[in-house]
Every structure is written in structure tokens, then in C-alpha cells.
Amino acid sequence: MMLRDPFLDEEFRPDLMWFIGVFGVYDREETLGAELEVYDPNNKDDRAELIRKYSLNLGYLTYRHKLVLMESLADKLNDESYDFQGLFDIDEDEAASWARGEWYELKDPRGFLQHVYTLAQEVWKDDLLKASQEDRATW
């Protein structure tokens, strides 16, 4: 058995884009873009609200997905050489965009993901505990 992707018929990959892809506004500039542009991702209070309201509001992920994602995030946070800024870089050939210029050059992209990790420990506490008590071989 293996944990399946919630949208595709394939193995789930705990990519950190699950946490930040929710801020992509391409083709949604007038709706999501307008909603997000009032927040500054470099401001600690704004960032906390963004993370709680968007990054951790992933109703399509099960408690098992959340645990696997958190473990992946922890691994990357423990890797001093991991390129967190690269997650926010958009290639000019990609059909993607952020709501504000600050997203392209976050002052502390590692800090942003560390903040996600800290808040997820609180917001997803029950889900993470439930998944951690299961035998993964049954997933």
C-alpha cells in the first residue's frame, strides 16, 4: 500500500509547494490576487494570518498526508543547504504569478516555512497525532 495523491492516481509526493502554491494567483488576479495583496508576507502578523488561512487550510489532504508533509518540511528545515527561495522563484516561461512583489524576494523564505511548521504543529495537532499512531504499512 502507499499514500495516494488526493488529485492524481499516483503516489503522494510531499512537495513543499502544497504549502505555498495556494498563493499563486495566475488567472485569479482579480479574485484571489485582490484578496492576498493586502497581506505582506514579510510582516510577521500578516504571515501568520496567511499561513493559518491558506497554507494550512488544505481540506483535500487527509491526516496522513499532513503528517508526511510535515516530516518532509522538517527534513528540509534541518538541511542548511536547502534552497527555500527557489520555491518562490517563477520561471518566465511558467504560467504562474504571485499577488505581490514581496513574494518574489521574501526577506526570509526559510523563516516563512519555519513559521508554517510551527503553526501546523498547533493547527494540525490532532491530525498529526492520529497519523503518528498508525502503522504506515496499512496506508
Shape: globular
Mean pLDDT: 88
Helix content: 40-55%
The overall number of domains is 1
Number of strand elements = 0
Class from secondary-structure proportions: mainly alpha
Rg to the nearest angstrom? 15 Å
Major sheet: size, sense and barrel closure? none
Number of helices: 7
Low-confidence runs: none
Q: Classify the beta-strand content into a percent band.
A: under 5%
Give helix and strand order, one letter per element, not per position.
HHHHHHH
Termini separation comes to 5 Å
Characterization of the model:
With 139 residues, the chain is mainly alpha-helical. It has one domain. It is 47% helix and 0% strand. Helix 3 packs across helix 6 and helix 4 runs antiparallel to helix 6. The longest helix is centred in the middle third of the chain and has 15 residues, at 63-77. The radius of gyration is 15 Å and the shape is globular. The termini are close together.
Summarize the structure in short.
With 139 residues, the chain is an all-alpha fold. It has helices at residues 17-20, 29-36, 44-55, 63-77, 85-88, 109-123, 125-132.
Search tags:
single chain, 139 residues, mainly alpha
Note the topology.
Blueprint: H1 17-20, H2 29-36, H3 44-55, H4 63-77, H5 85-88, H6 109-123, H7 125-132
